[in-house]
Amino acid sequence: MSNQTRTQHKNILLAIAGFVTVVIIVALIGFLALGxxxxxxxxxxxxxxxxxxxxxxxxxxxxxxxxxxxxxxxDTLAILDAPEVRAKMEQARSAENAAAAIELKAxxxxxxxxxxxxxxxxxxATAGFEIAEKSYQRIQRLFDExxxxxxxxxxxxxxxxxxxxxxxxxxxxxxMAVNGARMEDKMAAAAQVGRxxxxxxxxNSYINETVQIAQMEGEVSDVYPKVGELVGTGxxxxxxxxxxxxxxxxxxxxxxxNGMQVGSEFTAFVPAxxxxxxxxxxxxxxxxxxxxxxxxxxxxxxxxxTFEVKARPVEKLEGLRPxxxxxxxx
Length: 330
What we know:
Blueprint: H1 3-36, E1 40-53, E2 58-63, E3 70-71, E4 76-81, H2 83-108, H3 112-144, H4 150-179, H5 183-208, E5 211-213, E6 218-223, E7 230-231, E8 236-253, E9 265-270, E10 275-286, E11 293-294, E12 304-313, E13 325-329
Antiparallel strand pairs: 1-8, 1-13, 2-4, 2-7, 3-6, 4-5, 6-8, 8-12, 9-10, 10-12, 11-12
């Protein structure tokens, strides 16, 4: 073999060795690069919201706030026009006045003129009774002495008893006029007054519902109707985001939980601020068989479920908004 042939073989071997070396180096670089790539879990910021709605239907008369406004407890949010409720208030107040008049009549009893009339009849009956009593006593003595007959005595006695009954009847009429209505009637009248007042209070609560007041401090996130539109009972008028109650929510497969449990803390990256925030888990629950899951039984392993993890920031991060991304890197 000539020197030229040996040189060619040597060059070929060097080329093959160089190619294999390059392939090995690239494979090692790729393996190391893939091995160092972090396992990323992405979630987002959520916030508590409550919907403002009215117990009564009405037309939007005025909207005092708009989307993005920050409201405090007691601020007026919207005013509704509900003429039907005002009409019901007039009815309720009229019923209350009528019940109060009936109750006053039952409590005061008969009129003064009726009492005086009953008293006069009682006086007349008393005078007639006294005369009949004296006449009976005289006739009884004469009868005892044998001067008059038994029939005459019986006639006078019957008149005496009749006058006695007349006096008792007149006394009852007078007592009734003085005492007024029966106790049961007074109680019934008082109950009617209480019922009427309750109706007024109920309608008044509906009137209060025509002015919607902020119940919690927060930011107006959505306003649904426009001025002049009708809203039904319980229909949402706007949503208020309680900015002091934020949390992050993550959907994490169970093999990636890495010991994450209620009470544990972890660090999440906020791309919006290029900052990290420490968070504490307060909720951990599987999303059920209907949620995203990974089947691995084909290779002899097991099914992996997805868990919903909720965590609150340990310290407040100024400017954090609902919908912002949260990244967990392992």
